[in-house]
Amino acid sequence: MAQRVLVVEDEEDIAFPLVRTLEREGYDVTWLDSGEKTLEHVAGNPVDVMILDLGLPDMDGLEVCRRARESGFSGAIMIVTARAGELDRVVGLDYGADDYLSKPFGLAELQARVRALLRRTATGGATDGHGDEAAQGLRIDVPARRVYAGQDEVALTGKEFEVLTILAANRDKVVSRSRLMADVWDANWYGSTKTLDVTIGRLRQKLEGVGVTDRVVAVRGVGFRLEGGPPDA
Question: Start and end of every OmpR/PhoB-type domain (predicted)?
Fold first, then answer.
């Protein structure tokens, strides 16, 4: 079955080349031109990668990203925008995006990034060619906000990084759901706690996908625990 890509872009002269290029690559592509249509679509249809423009006519793309994650969307999100500032990039990642591509961009680069996102988010430890014999330990560089499996960097969103950092600091101990929500999300957060489960699910997929020995384990009714692998340095 073809992998499903959703292109969210209101400018036809940008959207059409994207759609044609991705279809030639063999993807099942859907094109939408507004935030509301996008949220309705992902609520009822599976999507592997969403290519999301920030400058939509009805709402900011960051709001689309945030609301999609809150509603349980677990596919990869790549933001495409003319906003090239570092602040926009950081905010986009904190809202749940996996990657950020500034306009103008080459179609070859976009294709490569889509392929990389599909590899990262695919389930199963063999996705990137790592079997049990290639299991790797996890290393977290907190000041740089970077995570490594062996020598390979693991691309995490802002929230995924913060959840992992807390779990790693309490390795082999259960961290409650309420603490994770309080420490990672804003104190005034009124959204569904399902967003934590979505974040944990995506974090698990990414760690498994690069063959790390560490596992995020759910303790029913309590919280989550990071176990396995050597203590993080």
Answer: 130-228
Close Cβ partners of 48 (under 8 Å, ≥ 6 residues apart): 3, 4, 5, 75, 76, 118, 121
- The domain spanning residue 216 has which CATH number? 1.10.10.10
Number of domains in the chain: 2
Assess if residue 159 is contained within a domain: yes
- Residue 152 domain boundaries: 132-227
Q: Kindly report, residue by residue over 1-26, the tens digit of the pLDDT.
A: 678 999 999 999 889 999 999 999 89
Residue 222 token pair: 């309590």
Alpha-carbon gap, residue 97 to 140, rounded angstroms:
20
**Inside any domain, residue 232:** no
Q: 135-181, pLDDT tens digit by residue?
A: 567 888 887 788 888 777 888 888 888 899 899 888 889 999 888 88
Distance CA 150, CA 210 (A): 9
Predicted structure pTM score: 0.60
Query: 98: closest CA among 113, 83, 85, 81?
Result: 113
What whole-number distance in Å separates Cα of residue 18 and Cα of residue 71? 26
Q: Which 8-state DSSP code applies to residue 134?
A: G
Question: What number of residues does the chain have?
Answer: 233
- The residues pairing with 63 across neighbouring beta strands, listed in sequence order, are none
The answer to whether the beta carbons of residues 166 and 183 sit under 8 Å apart is yes
As given in the structure block, the two tokens for residue 137 are 């330990």
Secondary structure element (H or E) that encloses residue 94, with its range: helix 86-94
d(CA 225, CA 94): 22
